[in-house]
Design goal:
About 45% of the residues lie in helices and about 15% in strands. The chain is of the alpha/beta class and about 375 residues long. InterPro entries: AB_hydrolase_fold (IPR029058), Peptidase_S33 (IPR002410).
């Protein structure tokens, strides 16, 4: 009996310590969850007079969407970042952690598209979350940025296989809005790229005698993926990507701690950090399920043979999410006033966080030409 009481006593002490630790962590997170963007300060702690650090939920073409705008000097050029996924926003904290520091040389607009991330709203009908609608939203936002900051044109960067396509269609439709098109992780032909990604995943799995991954790949079958009794189209994409990521992982700096930094980021409220981003991943990326099943026909080689602005492509040579060989073939065939191809040796599907210094250098020396 004494032994039982002793065990119970120590169990309660341990449980109390765990609960106390969790409460302290939650308190720290709560304190750092004002929802206000981190300001740009000088050495004396004063706000830089011409800086901007804000976010807002604005209505674009009748649909609520989140934009975050950050920059040390509002006189700098405007850079609109178009995220991929689809449905996977790029939060400012990611660029901050990587050390790219684009906010030093641009006023950067991070756009969370309709149905994605903090722009999610269950009142938005699925039928409105289409590539055409997102492109029109982006053009409306581009005009808004031009007018707000009194610029003749802005720069646009498309990321991954959603963002590069959306941005390319935007530039094709209204080239007069843009100084240049920048693509990173370029998806030029989704169908062809997915075939090569599948082959890479299967080849690596067989090379490593990874029977679990081999069986998963056999289960989903070769692309184009179709829904079956065991998985949906979206789930098939995710299975393949997880295996690709296993054998071609994005190489992050050991100090790159996204989860810790996100929780301590004042730009997000307590609710946004937990309810929208942690507890509800299915609702955080709803656009992915809607767009992935219909995006297989995405083909820039066919649809956009020409862009009437300078083009810069930044691609990892080991990117098997958006296959580099397909991206290069499109780049070679693309007609543009000028174009430059930047290959990152040993880079994968996140060269901006893998090689931030080179990424920033390209922006300063090549794109801005400083």
């Amino acid at each position: 009996m004494k032994i039982v009481k002793k065990i119970l006593k120590w169990f309660l002490i341990l449980l109390g310590a765990i609960v106390a630790f969790i409460l302290v962590v939650l308190l720290v997170i709560r304190i750092n969850s004002s929802g206000d963007e981190e300001l740009f300060l000088d050495e004396k702690g004063n706000v830089l007079p011409n800086s901007i650090a804000m976010h807002e939920d604005m209505t674009i073409n009748g649909v609520p969407q989140r934009i975050t705008i950050r920059g040390k000097d509002k006189n700098n050029p405007i850079l609109l970042i178009v995220h991929g996924g689809p449905g996977a926003p790029i939060l400012p904290i990611i660029y901050k952690l990587s050390g790219i520091d684009l906010e030093d040389i641009f006023t950067v607009c991070y756009w969370e598209q309709r149905g994605s991330g903090l722009a999610y709203n269950d009142s938005i009908p699925d039928s409105s979350i289409t590539l055409a609608h997102i492109v029109d939203d982006g053009l409306e936002l581009s005009n808004h940025l031009k007018k707000t900051f009194k610029k003749d044109k802005i720069y646009i960067e498309g990321l991954s296989w959603g963002g590069t396509a959306v941005a390319a269609y935007m530039v094709q439709k209204q080239p007069e809005l843009y100084h240049a098109y920048i693509g990173s992780g370029l998806m030029a032909n989704l169908s062809l790229s997915e075939e090569l990604s599948y082959e890479f995943a299967m080849s690596e799995s067989q090379k490593h005698n990874d029977t679990i991954s081999i069986n998963q790949l056999k289960q989903i079958g070769r692309p184009p993926y179709v829904e079956n009794s065991k998985n949906s189209v979206t789930e098939a994409f995710e299975i393949e990507r997880q295996i690709v990521m296993k054998y071609a992982p994005i190489k992050l700096d050991p100090d790159f701690n996204f989860i810790k930094s996100m929780f301590l980021d004042n730009g997000l409220t307590f609710k946004e950090k937990f309810t929208d981003m942690i507890n509800s991943p299915e609702s955080y990326y709803p656009a992915a399920k809607i767009l992935e099943s219909t995006a297989i026909d995405m083909n820039l080689m066919r649809d956009i043979p020409e862009l009437k602005v300078p083009v810069y492509i930044l691609q990892g040579d080991n990117d098997h999410f958006t296959e580099t060989s397909v991206a290069k073939a499109y780049f070679d065939s693309l007609i543009a006033p000028s174009k430059k191809w930047f290959l990152f040796e040993n880079g994968t599907h996140g060269v901006q966080v893998e090689y931030p210094e080179k990424y920033r250098s390209i922006y300063i020396n090549e794109i801005l030409g400083k």
